[in-house]
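Q: Two folds, back to back.
A: First:
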Amino acid sequence: MARLLFTKPLHGALILLDEPTVGLHIRDVEYLLNALNALVKQGNTVLVVEHSFLVLASAHWVLDLGPDGGDKGGRLMYQGPVGDFLKECDSITAQWFRGQVGRQVPRRPAPPRFKNSSAPSGIRIREAKHHNLKSLSVEIPRNKLVVLTGVSGSGKSSLAFDVVFAEGRRRYVESLSTYVRQFVRLFERPDVHSIEGLPPTVAIEQRVSGAGPRSTVATLTEVYHFLRLLYARVSEPFCPWCGMKLATQGLDNIVTGLLKEMAGKRVTVLAPKVRRRKGFHRTELQRALQRGYEKVRIDGEIMGLRPMPKLSRYQEHSIDVVVGQVEIRPSMASQLRQLLKKAFLDGEREAIILCQEEERFLSEQYFCSRCKRGLPVPDPLLFSFNTKAGACPACNGMGQSDEGKTCPRCSGSRLREEALGYKIRGLNIAQLCQMSSKEALTFLHGLTFSAHQSEVARPIMEECTRRLGFMIELGLDYLSLDRSGHTLSGGEAQRIRLAAELGSNLTGIAYILDEPTIGLHPRDNHRLVEALMRLKNRGNS
């Protein structure tokens, strides 16, 4: 704005600002309003997205959108001068605005003085000189909701993040092993004489840089972790290619189907032994050798068992035993049956048919008699788009092509077809994540399970509904669970992290938040305060 006002004055321009009061002390809002009025006097139009009472009261014209957020928003509630806005409009913003007119900020009693003792009742900081702090000594009470305020540039962030959080993080990292410390970012020691009574610290900042293109609202709040577990335990299998519900199939039916579908093709029959597990896996390889097998397929490459392959301990591996080869034709039906029987026995009712570039998964448990294909037994990794086991092979779990277009194979769901075949009450996990947090909570509350399923589902459901409930409490009920993390605003990203922390059930932590009301409508501030009080009441600071 300084550049617009002085170095390159504009005339007749439309200037757009997004919540310019963010980070400003109330005193500094007056300077901002003077700058905005100066731009208007130069002959420009200034359009401001803002919740601040002071900015609203100073505006010449008001456009109020509503009536609510998300799908319930997008309507024009009022347009006109500010005076008529107070008299004529009955929107949520207007009601709040009327309540602020003439309102005085109540004086609160001074906080009690903390006595010096050998065991500090608070975080005691002595002679902090970091950045612009002038030998600051202060005691921050523990297990309380503490507000740090001051004009812009007064040192609030230096004290909160560069001293308290950085020192808490540094002490925690020092408690880890040397091996682990090499993978963790180290914070510099703040310029301070001493800090006593400092618990482990967690910073919840106004940033979205930590959310990569693979992160979604569901993964950031950890709701997705429990949804994956829920689908792995109580979902029903459907054929992802034709939609038919899958059922147990006998060996004879599978052989008959292959004779029709793959007639004349020479195939390799494999028995899956290890799925995406780290380790040397010497025991599995030796056992295969003892059972008379000569070859295995490790991470997609077929190799001999003599000499024994050496695997990396810290990498994930998939191992399939090569049972044999056969040409699929009626005269070889008996040999095909014997190979599949052996593969199902060693592969725990699962087998793989490999024919040149084509790979077909077979299962005695979940087999489609129409498509002659099977689904693997559901596993939480199958529903993860951050692993090869679950990610769509066309877009590698991104949901988009390199050109930014929706992936045609997974339709933006990020998951492979096998994962989308498992459903709960008609919805696969990608369809559930297309819902907002409020809609997903309603869906989960409407689920019913058998007595056996209830024992498994109950603790998972509790975790899911609790986290979704926290999102709604923090005013994030309009966000869909599959919303990409890097598209969130700073305020939304901060409240998403706060919802995740509320769901973690940690105690004895010092949480440090940077202006958490950013992006919140004033009517939602009480929800945020209630969430912060909930954290405090658990024994956190």
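A: Second:
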Amino acid sequence: MASGKSSLINSLLNVGILARKGDTGTSCTWVIQEFRATLPKQSTPFRAEIEYYSEAELEAVITFLFKEAYASLPSSRAGSEALDDETENRNDSGLTAIKTTQTLFCDKPECVSEEAITELLSEASSETDQNVIQKMIIWSRELVRKYAKQDDDLISVVEHTTTQGLLQKLREYTFNGADEDEFTEPVVSPWPLIKKITFGLDSPMLNDGVVLMDLPGVHDSNSTRRRTLGKALAACTHYLVVAQISRAQDDDTVTKYFTEGHKKKGSGRVIAAITNSDRIDGDMRNGNAEQQKQMEETKEKILSITGELDQIRTKRKTASKQERLEMFEKEEDLHRQLHDAESAHDSSKIMIRNKKTVKSLRRTYLRLTGDQRALPIFCVSNKAYEQYQLGFERSDRPVLTLDDTGIPKLRQHLRHATGEGRFNAARFHYEAQLPSLLSSVEIWCFKTHMKRRKELEDIVLEPREACEKAIEDLFTQIRDNIETEILILIKQKEKHWNHEATELCST
């Protein structure tokens, strides 16, 4: 059963259905899909860049595909009884390898059907028969050249103004039509040769630097898809483990990725998203006393409203036209109250169950990893969140509030968790690069002044010459003042001063 990761990505992006989702038991993520902010050269709201495997990677993929397909052939060395058993119990990976081969080359006579492919495999001398392998490699190269432009470095570009239109164009790249309807003729699809599809769109979360990757499910029966999972996970900074709430506590895949994520990415790098949190069966008896009291009060309110509705239906039979009109308005109001009360009751049960699940998963994570940092767990409801996206009637309000759907909280956590690098870059810029930049500006200023030597010398020397002249003029003025104020006065008073001095000396 699907975990709901594609639906979760659609909810987080909040632009409609972009990550392909389905209700069948098979995986609906056929290739690795990456979701980024608007891509360079993007000219429409939604863009997809399909990247194919390189020559060396292509050979490895086809060789591996042929090896698994060849392994599905019954052994000629076995006895007749063992041969029948082996034929009946062919391994799934070999059968899916044959289907994958048909998906790629169903336009070739040798691969037009599973029977034809089996005959082609029978002609091979071993799982490393280069004659057949090289033939398939040549076919795959031709297929890549058909879809990819050589000047675009093995990349095809698809653009559209709506998500629905973009997915329609991408259908042949991301989905195998042969598995959709057993009565439909298979069509060529290059998805086994696609390394990754990168989506570009305008999204506040993606614009903050968050990059989401939708990966093939680990339980997918197709080994080619499983093989690409390891490399993609190695490139991620965080593990977002997605599982249905009904299976999360018993799912081996969840515990596997708890352990693997902590081991490979470290503390705080594993996040859990538990989907279908709005689904609940039976009556909950696990809440505390206060929660149980609140639920009992809500239950009594539901019974009270139901009783009032029964009374109105009884009175309506004998009521007048005016009374029936008033009863109709009252009945509508009671139905709204009943819906709200039932929603509140269900919401309380859901919150109790969710808290219990969170507590259990955190204990499991601590036991597996020893990480003292609490595991971030978000119980989310993609269905309820989609109702808020599309809108709803007042009488059909979702059981959960928008905040209780868990999507806004998870989106905010992803923005904060993946923002660590941007914060460290800003701090480094402030603490190291900015002082260095200011020092560089200061040095630049010094160098600039040296280049302006002639101009600076003129600025310095011109005042010096002006000072010399000013000082010379000052001394000239002082000398003139001495001659005017002192020497001339002495000359005028000399006779009088001599007479007074003679009289003073005579006495």
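Q: And?
A: Residues 453-506 form the longest helix (54 residues).
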